[in-house]
Design goal:
It is elongated, with a radius of gyration of 23 Å. It folds into 3 domains: about 60 residues, DNA polymerase, domain 1, CATH 1.10.150; about 200 residues, Rossmann fold (3-Layer(aba) Sandwich); about 70 residues, Winged helix-like DNA-binding domain superfamily/Winged helix DNA-binding domain (Arc Repressor Mutant, subunit A, Orthogonal Bundle). The strands form 2 sheets. Strands 1-2-6-5-4-3-7-8-9 form a 9-stranded mixed β-sheet, sandwiched between helices. A 3-stranded antiparallel β-sheet has the order 10-12-11. It starts with a helix and ends with a strand. By secondary structure, it is of the alpha/beta class. The protein is about 45% helix and about 15% strand. The chain is built from 19 helices and 12 strands.
């Protein structure tokens, strides 16, 4: 039995959780040794009573590990633990990091830098469009957008990231074989087909319930550097996620909503309580420049580090002088129509390559 297989089995043992597993590992060192430990030795571990010790010693009669492994293979998923380099580093630091993560799709190093976008299931047109726009811009800027695949704001967030051809992660509150809500199956398929992954900490056949969603929410907040709330009622699950994010030391952002819209009462209250009001994506990206500082490269290295640019993007970028440059001068030097220059400058801003100054002047970043 491998370490990952042992973790899958332990994750399926009734009463086992991340905190208890951590205490057991402090004594037995490996998950394999936990599964073969005697009852007396298990009961001696703090927080492990007779009931859980009995569940562990009799695990083979209660957990069909071979069937679960077959389900994982048939579904085309994989399972990672905290030992994997792709397990989110931020998530390892929370109080109760998941024992395992079931992954349907692909994780990349880029997914370590993520922003959660969440909100109400019952949303307004304004809320949905705001979530799509901001998620598009976040993904276009190179951040991974994390949400919960739920109806409403979550769905809009994933759609926005996909429209930008960026990365998005959907963390669900059920097993992969019971994806919820079922009408988002096509969206889930699109995410896992080269654009991100569907993630669950639950075994393949677990159905969603009132307990699984709050558990799912701590993963969304724990994975992210910050969490953006777009429309949330006063009793919304998004507010629970925001509370968890605060406890985990994450940045909290909120989009202001209409004062008469019930779906915005919770998100507006977050702003009252100190969440950063977001009107454009730079309100988030400027913070992350401080949170995730990068070493300043040499001029030659900086040139090599530029992302792939279209012909128009390259011409506009090269037209910007070393000092601030007026948009009319950029248009003249690039020999492009003013409309094309404006839209291209916006794309370069989203790629964090240029910045607009008052008076329609632009400077290169970095």
């Amino acid at each position: 039995m491998t370490s990952i297989e042992a973790c899958i089995a332990l994750n399926m043992v009734a009463g086992m959780g991340p905190v208890r597993l951590r205490k057991l590992l402090q004594v037995f060192e490996t998950p394999e040794r936990i599964l073969t430990a005697r009852g007396a030795a298990l009961r001696a571990v703090e927080g492990v009573g007779a009931e859980l010790a009995g569940q562990i010693t009799s695990w083979e009669s209660k957990v069909d590990l071979s069937a679960e492994l077959q389900r994982i293979r048939d579904f085309g998923a994989e399972v990672i633990t905290a030992e994997s380099p792709l397990y989110p580093r931020q998530l390892r630091e929370i109080h109760a990091p998941p024992i395992v993560l079931y992954v349907w799709g692909e994780l990349t190093e880029r997914d370590q830098h993520a922003i959660a976008v969440i909100g109400s299931r019952r949303t307004t047109h304004y809320g949905s469009e705001s979530a799509k726009k901001l998620s598009y811009q976040l993904a276009y800027a190179g951040l991974t957008v994390i949400s919960g695949l739920a109806r409403g704001i979550d769905t809009a967030a994933h759609q926005g990231a996909l429209a930008a051809k960026g990365r998005t992660i959907a963390v669900i509150g059920s097993g992969l074989m019971n994806l919820y809500p079922p009408e988002n199956a096509a969206l889930a398929e699109k995410i896992r087909s080269g654009h991100g992954a569907i993630i669950s900490e639950f075994s393949m056949e677990i159905e969603p319930d009132r307990q699984t969603f709050p558990m799912r929410n701590r993963i969304i907040s724990g994975w992210s550097h910050g969490i953006l709330v777009v429309e949330a009622g006063l009793n919304s699950g998004a507010l629970i996620t925001a509370t968890q994010a605060l406890e985990q030391g994450r940045l909290i952002y909120a989009v202001p909503g209409h004062i008469n819209a019930p779906s915005a009462h919770g998100s507006n209250r977050l702003i009252q309580q100190g969440a950063k009001l977001v009107m454009e994506v730079s309100d988030i990206l400027d913070d992350l420049e401080v949170l995730l500082p990068e070493a300043k490269p040499s001029p030659a290295a900086a040139a090599r580090a530029l992302p792939t640019l279209t012909d128009e993007e390259r011409r506009v970028y090269d037209a910007i002088e070393a000092s601030e440059t007026a948009i009319d001068d950029i248009a003249a030097k690039s020999n492009l129509p003013s409309g094309s220059v404006s839209s291209t400058l916006l794309r370069l801003e989203l790629k964090r390559l240029v910045k607009q100054l008052p008076g329609k002047y632009f400077v290169k970043l970095g």
